[in-house]
Amino acid sequence: MKNNIIIKFMLDGNLVSLKTTSNTRLLDLIRKDAGNTSVREGCGEGECGACSILLDGKLVNACSTAAISAHGKNVITSYGFSETEEYKIISDAFAEAGAVQCGFCTPGFIMATAALLMRNADPSTSEIKTALSGNLCRCTGYTMIIDAVKIASKNLKNCEKTFFSKILNSSEFIFDKTDANVLLPETIEQALTLVKEGFIPVAGGTDLIVRNHATRKESFDDHLIPPQVFSTSKIKNLNNIKTKNGCIEIGAGAKISEIIDFDKTPQILRESLKSIASPGIRNAATLAGNICNASPAGDSLPALYILDANINYFEMKNNEVLKKTIPIKDFITAPGKTILNNNEKSISIVSSISIKLLEGYDFIYKKLGTRAANALSKLNISVIYKKKNNNFIDFKLAIGACAPTIIRNITAEQLLIKHGQEKLDKILSLYSECLTPIDDQRSTATYRKNTALKIIEDIILNTETYSC
Ligand SMILES: Cc1cc2nc3c(=O)[nH]c(=O)nc-3n(C[C@H](O)[C@H](O)[C@H](O)COP(=O)(O)OP(=O)(O)OC[C@H]3O[C@@H](n4cnc5c(N)ncnc54)[C@H](O)[C@@H]3O)c2cc1C
Ligand code: FES
Ligand code: FES
Fold first, then answer.
1. Which pLDDT band holds residue 221 (cuts at 50, 70, 90)?
2. For residues 113 and 154, is the Cβ–Cβ distance under 8 A?
3. Nearest listed ligand to the Cα of residue 239
4. Residue 223 confidence (pLDDT)
């Protein structure tokens, strides 16, 4: 019953009220139900940026966002944006720089440019490249597009930018309650009741919504109904990031871009989060989603293993709600498996991630992938260490994408701290024993294992050259 819902949101400044299902993508709601085709569908997997929109002023991909996430929010598409002075300046700049050929990618690039210039009036080339890293163009190449952003940035300086200020200062909408509110629980108890009824929590949707859609496409069945979802975005306190008693506590609903911007986030975690996907994905995705995916290649995971992160979750048993805490190494049990989904009967929801704040550590983060943005890791390594007189007095290293779950070898770490490089061969053989990668579409097992061992050796011998 609850799967059929009415979603209300502001679309390009107009209140819309649309009947849909909980597992619909925001892209389909905008294109098919609202009839706004300025939002394009390219890859449908979060990789090309053709479907870029602003959701409450932040760039996101409509193809990887659950429609339910837009309830009560402000959505701006390139169609709505095209009515503004800022749009005229940006699109004229694209024309002047020759940054448009077939034009399929252009609305997405324009939205990504708007999201950048709204907050950073004078971006450097490297900031422009990062801001556009989630958008692909198959015609022009990128030089002309980067030039266009620079021209737009210059020309926008003489414009009042009323639209940008309106977006940046807009407050949350409060609409009459509709049945969609049921799928936006405000308390943990309400969320757990939905889990009990078979609904799956969706946070950013960048994994779940993309996966659901891919399953539908692969089965060539448009009518295949993926699992029903509810959004965790309105649960009280779930979006907070705070420090207390020497720990940082990151709410399960906090977005990756917010965690990167939080000043107390451990550097090694910040660096690994910066390597995840692209701005549009990072504005929607959460750390909790990255953990619950339990992918061996999840980029935050090696950092969380060496920081000995704890996962806090609520479990409903016999109608009683219990708060539990478990170390991340015990939370993730196998590829795609956590203690929450291992047991079909478990009625649980992650509330936050706690990490003890450490001082005086240097760090190293290394990710190998096929593309700078939007590439899952072939291999990722996180290290934190302390050195005194050129000797390690502490050393923690974890490797992803090289075994069913993240690898951390405490014996090898202790050997290095006690004996230094003297025991290098033994240390490498300890790592070699636990690296059991597989061949997949991203890399081969041999490449992964050999490269991981070479990088570990290099990190031990030439630590400072690797340090971030
Ligand atoms: C184009 C693209 C590029 C990507 N690149 C990377 C990359 O470089 N590195 C990387 O590591 N990942 C990458 N990802 C994967 C994904 O973006 C991340 O794993 C992201 O952190 C998932 O977070 P989310 O909030 O969107 O999760 P969602 O999709 O909302 O959820 C993921 C899983 O977590 C569960 N879940 C979410 N919140 C809770 C909760 N509170 N309690 C219990 N369960 C919960 C959901 O039910 C679901 O099973 C990429 C994805 C795409 C589409
Ligand atoms: S259609 Fe490619 S990112 Fe959405
Ligand atoms: S102009 Fe054709 S894909 Fe970019």
1. low
2. no
3. 1
4. 56
User: 57 in ligand 2 pocket by Cβ < 6 Å?
Assistant: no
CA 148 to CA 94: how far, in whole Å?
A: 5
Read off the pLDDT of residues 7-29 as tens digits, 9 standing for 90 and up: 999 999 999 999 998 889 999 99
CATH for 360-468? 3.30.390.50
CA distance to 16, 172, 200, 245, 429, per residue, from 196 (Å):
31, 30, 9, 34, 46
CATH topology of domain 184-359: 3.30.465
Give the pocket of ligand 3 (CB within 6 Å).
Answer: 100-105, 137-140
| Model confidence at 82: pLDDT above 90 | yes
Give start-end residues of each CATH 3.30.390.50 domain in the chain.
360-468
pLDDT of 415 higher than 60: yes
Residue 131 Cα to ligand 2 middle (Å): 16
Domain with CATH 3.30.465.10 in the chain: 184-359
Pocket test for ligand 1, best of 187, 208, 326 (most atoms within 8 A of CB): 208
CATH level 2 (architecture), domain 1-183: Roll (3.10)
- Specify the ligand 1 atom closest to the Cα of 349: 42
pLDDT of res. 213: 81
Residue 408 in tokens: 């951390």
Q: Where along the chain do the CATH 3.10.20.30 domains lie?
A: 1-183
Smallest CA separation from ligand 3 atom 4, residue: 137
- Which atom of ligand 1 lies closest to the CA of 64? 53
Asked if pLDDT for residue 262 goes beyond 80, the answer is yes
Q: Which two tokens stand for residue 253?
A: 């609903």
Pocket flag, ligand 1, residue 78 (CB < 6 Å): no
Span 331-382, pLDDT tens digits: 999 999 999 987 767 899 999 999 999 999 999 999 998 877 778 889 999 9
Residue found by looking up tokens 């108890």 in the block:
189
Alpha-carbon torsion (237, 241, 244, 249), positive or negative: positive
